[in-house]
Amino acid sequence: MFLVRLVIVAGQLMYDPPLDTVEQAVLDAFDAIVLRSANIDEITTKITYSGQEKGMATIDAQDPRNQTPRARIAHVIQMNLDSPNKLCANFKHAFGALLAIDTKDFLDGLTDAVLNIAEPKVTFRLIQVDCSSAKASILQQAVSLRQGLQRQVAGAWTEGNRAVSVRYNALCTRLQLSPETTEAMDEQEKFMASTAAELSSLAQQIAASQHTFEVLQSSQYITGEEESDVFWGMRRWPNKLAEVLEEAAKMLKRHKQRFLGDLHVDQQKLRAQLEVLRSDVEAFSELGDIAQVDERLGAVQDLETRLKQSQEMADLFTNRERIFDLPPSPFPALAEIQKMLDPLSSLWDMCSEFTHHLPDWMDGPIVAINAEQVATDCEKWYRQTAKIGKAMAGPAAEVLANLRGKLEGFQEHLPLIKALRNPGLRDRHWDKISQKVGVPVKADASFSVSRALQLQLPKQLAILEEVSEYASREYSLERALDKMQGDWTGVAFDTLEWRATGTYILRGLDDIQTLLDDQIVKTQGMRASPYIGPFEERVRLWEAKLNLTQEIMDEWLKCQQGWLYLEPIFGSEDILQQMPNEGRKFRAVDATWRRIMAAVRKAPEVLLMCSDDELLKNLIEANKFLEQVQKGLNDYLETKRLAFPRFYFLSNDELLEILSETKDPLRVQPFLRKIFEGIDKLEFAPDLEVTAMLSEEGEKLSLKTTFNPKAAGGNVEKWFIEAEAAMRETVRDVTRKSFDAHAVSRRIDWVLQWPGQVVLCVGSMFWTQEVAESIRSNALPAYSKKCTEDLLDVVNKVRGKLSKLERKTLSALIVVDVHARDVATELAAQGVSSETDFEWMSQLRYYWENDDVMVRMINAAIGYGYEYLGNSSRLVITPLTDRCYRTLMGALHLNLGGAPEGPAGTGKTETTKDLAKAMAMQCVVFNCSDGLDYLAMGKFFKGLASAGAWACFDEFNRIDLEVLSVIAQQILTIQRAKAAKVATFEFEGTRLSLRTTCSVFITMNPGYAGRSELPDNLKALFRTVAMMVPDYALISEIMLYSSGYLQARELARKLVATYRLCSEQLSSQSHYDYGMRAVISVLRAAGANKQKWGDMAEELLMLRSIRDVNQPKFLAPDIPLFEGILADLFPGVMLPEPDYKDLDDCLRAACKAANLQATPVFMEKAHQLYEMVLVRHGLMVVGYSFAAKTSIYRMLAAALGDLHNKKLMDENK
To answer: Do strands 504-507 and 494-497 pair parallel, antiparallel, or not at all (unpaired)?
Structure first.
């Protein structure tokens, strides 16, 4: 904080120093900091490894990074100068006119004005005005004002003069005091020095008073007698004080000489006293006779007191010598006397303590003896006697030897005292001692050590120690048991109100369980101890109580777990109506639970609550009911799954959520995606008639045959069966109508008039038909050109303005059309001339046969599934994809399963899913783990067989080998039933209906840690296909075409080259990925950028996509290399700065609200995180501690929420 004074100079108000100097001082400090910060080591070189030391870049004075904060500081200072300037302005406004007045000129001018304004009498034609009275009054008023101001100034002046006089008087009084000691003289000298420093301040006050006096005189003020006396009395004080100071200095000089002489005399006296004291100590050292210990102790204490007084006097004289600036005088006799006296003092102190305690120990009640304290004292004294023995001679040495002998004699009794004073001795132990020694022994008020010696108990010491040791062990067990029981004091159950049920549950049981486990183990150890006899029954009862508590807690937690799971289920009226018996049993358990929890709320102490055998019985009975309810619930769910097999793909919880909402079909909507892959919602009429189905993308298909869930009577599985049938019928009907419409419509118009799935299916049928005709007519080259033209039409259409739904349809169509064109071109190049040529037969072909779609490949013919899959994207078809298709279709033809295997990112699972899309089959992907058992897999297989769906078991070889053997038998059962073409079959004790479209596919990563080798009986059930590295360039090219890129081939090559060079040149890090998943992320970003900036150059869009997706994950040393790779592949391409204005505004607002600084690096990382969120399903933020990882994602989340609220950047929550 800066302090400035508001002063008046030449009648003007101003600050001293001026406010401008404040600003300049701060800016000068800032400039000095910048100057001094040059060449300081950068902190990043200390926390990360970079090949060389690096200093902080020196910031030039004109650098924007310097000018911006400097200008901000100047702005802040200017803002803080506003208030002081306003204060000065207030003073000027209030008193400016007063300050501008020259008093003499004003008064003279006022007098002239009053006298000249008019004559004393002014005569008019009718009236004569006498102005003399008014003039006199005005002049009198002015005089009164002047006199009032004079009196006010004079009053303050007089009070100031009086205060100065009082201070002078106090100084003189203090200076005239005569010091009585050297210390007082030193204080007087210090006061005189401080008075001299104060005189300048008093002189300034006198000068100011003189100035005021002159002003009063010049204004013709007549000072009063008292005012004059005070003023002139004050003026005389400086001279008077000077005289006092001079006299005080003389007085101090005289006292200094006297005190110095006294000091020498006192030191001589002290030396003489020390000699006398030395003689007395030497004389005392010749005294002995331990019998006179009290007299000797008094004498030695008197000597110690005299020595202490002498030491204090020596310290006082040393301090006085320091005052006189003299070197300290030594008193070596003090240390010598202390050395002589300390052993004597210790000796007689020990003699006194021992001789006074010994009668109490020997003849006093033994129950009053603290054996441990006695042993400690004796040991301490014995060590001290050995320590001071070398310093003793003559009678003192005899006393020491006498004391040492007595100590040794008494120490012989210490084992006896310890044995008899064991705190663990009880009456049973005294009886045992009495029996063994042959005389009655009991530690009471009449029993002493002397009595024990009379009874010759030291001869029986071995017996006493044996019994005492036994008592100690028993005592330790007894104390441990007492402690265990005491540990439960205050231990109570903690309860938590459970939602809106009106009852409670237990929580925070870890500490109770830990205490219980620990005490059960300790109690079991106690029971095994040979010293447990006297309280064996007590320990047994305690163990029984702990075991009962453990049993109750186990049953209680088991009951709580079951109750928590079943309570929300049976809280539904729909479930209760469908399961009345289980509902009654659960209500009984619920009543028991509520009663128990009400009791624990009233008495929460653990041991009190768990001491009731009836509570254990109630909990065991409740758990039996819960098991029965759980079994009934599982049987009930099994019946629902058998009725509608797709329920097998749901967990119990998900199925129960659906079944608990049977009254209102609208409330089942959120679960549709779990059952029907492509249906996001159903469209309900006011009467709840289902009229249409809608996909997640917003595609709508009106049902050919509508249905009403009400007709199912609350059985949700019944109207789900109707929904499945209506879905297949509708897709088949729309496919037929689209097939008919294709023949009479322009293709480019037709593709936007029908659902995406239907467009792909019908388009493939016409492609198959047209290729076959071209083969028969040898017109494949011409047809290849037609395919290219059709493809370009669609690509150009994609580049235009389309809805999201239309764009998705056309993107998938382009992927299929590119493959269709490539196949036609390849067939033409190979000169295929017959429809039976393998090159044509090995393609996936669609036919309309017997009023149904049939999909063929080589000798396999599979019916189209008509499963509605929504308007989903399709996988790019490469030669590797075709090979996988051929293997899987061949497996289906032979009623076997398919088994793609290969490294991660080669498209095993995606290819299987894409074939299911091509066949319109439901494909359920299941990620396997080593925790899977055959029961869970059997449940899944039941659903597959009955629903006719496909399943893709990912990472199948992670399942344990023992389980795989059982799974082989399960799959074999299904495959045999398919081969036999039966309608129903027996599967693990359950009669299942069979849909022959069901099939099982597995994917594997061979050679990975934790993977099992498939058993031979399982291998025989699958056709394997090796999936190696996919064709990145081809996939990238086709996906770029589908996003509307015209330079797709060139950009795809650059993308693949980027990742190849990165893998070769950049460092190897565990989170770097240059595989298919990384390529897809870039392609997804490129598609989004194309939609956002359709008019921008395609090279710029691709460069931005590559940089935005990859740069955030690279370490600092790799970024320059990455930038160099991009510069080589995209020469001369400069990226414009992205427009993050709205996002930046919201980020800064969020940072301000969280009291964080939105630094450039922080903002850059937030931008990178935002770009990654757009193209990734999930991500990980990696960095050192305190690198702002958490703050960045929290601030970004807050900013995106603000953007959503402001409806900016198309941001959705």
So the answer is: antiparallel
User: From the centroid of its chain, how far is CA 789?
Assistant: 59
Check residue 547 and give its pLDDT: 93
On the question of pLDDT at 1174 being above 90, the answer is no
DSSP structural state of residue 680: -
Question: Which tens digit of pLDDT belongs to each residue from 261-290?
Answer: 888 998 899 899 989 988 988 888 888 888
**DSSP readout, 812-850?**
HHHHHHHHHHHHHHHHHHHT---TTSHHHHTS-EEEEET
Q: What is the pLDDT of residue 39?
A: 58
- Where do the H-state alpha helices sit in 743-755? 747-750
In three-state secondary structure terms, 493 is coil
CA distance 304 to 296: 12
Q: Which two tokens stand for residue 879?
A: 């030669």
Q: What is the pLDDT of residue 54?
A: 46
Out of 482-486, 572-576, 622-626, 1004-1008, least confident range: 1004-1008
Going by their DSSP bridges, the two strands 999-1002 and 950-954 should be labelled as parallel
Q: On the CB side of 298, how many CA atoms lie within 13 Å of its CA?
A: 3
Length of the chain, in residues: 1213
Tracing tokens 């304004």 back to the chain, one arrives at 117
- Peptide bond between residue 17 and the one before it cis (omega within 30 degrees of 0): yes
The 8 Å CB, 24+ separation contacts for 748-756 are 748/790, 748/793, 748/794, 748/797, 751/794, 751/809, 751/810, 751/813, 752/806, 752/809, 752/810, 755/699, 755/701, 755/809, 755/871, 756/699, 756/805, 756/808, 756/809, 756/812, 756/813, 756/870, 756/871, 756/872
Neighbours of 229 (CB within 10 A): 13
> Rounded to the nearest 5°, which phi and psi values hold at 66?
-95, -45
Residue indicated by tokens 């060590």: 383
Phi then psi dihedrals of residue 1131, to 5 deg? -65, 135
Q: Which of 2, 4, 1, 25 is nearest to 88 (CA)?
A: 4
DSSP 887-931: HHHHHHHTT-EEEEE-STTSSHHHHHHHHHHHHT--EEEEE--TT
Q: Are 884 and 874 in contact (CB under 8 A)?
A: no
For 826-874, the pLDDT digits (tens) are: 999 999 989 999 999 999 999 999 889 999 999 999 999 999 999 988 8
CA 560/CA 371 separation, integer angstroms: 55
Axis crossing angle, helix 1141-1153 with helix 1160-1175, rounded to the nearest 10: 120
Nearest C-alpha neighbor of 74 from the set 38, 31, 37 = 31
Residue 195 to residues 119, 231, 256, 1150, Cα–Cα distance (Å): 64, 22, 20, 62
329 contacts 192 by C-beta, under 8 angstroms: no
Structure-model confidence comparison of residues 614 and 117, the more confident one:
614
Residue 1067 is encoded by which pair of tokens?
Answer: 């460092």
Q: Which helix (H) or strand (E) holds 425?
A: none
CB-CB neighbours of 965 under 10 Å:
14
Q: Compute and round to an integer the Cα radius of gyration of the chain.
A: 53
Element (H, E) at 1024: strand 1022-1026
How far is Cα 1147 from Cα 1166, in angstroms, rounded to an integer? Answer: 8
462: tokens are: 């071995």
Q: What angle do CA 851, 855, 859 make, to 5 degrees?
A: 120
Q: Is pLDDT at 107 greater than 70 in this prediction?
A: no
Q: Write the pLDDT tens digit of every residue in 216-251.
A: 888 777 888 888 888 898 889 888 888 888 888 888
pLDDT score recorded for residue 420:
81
pLDDT mean over 255-266: 88
Structure tokens at 187: 């204080």
- Please report the pLDDT score of residue 57 as a whole number: 56
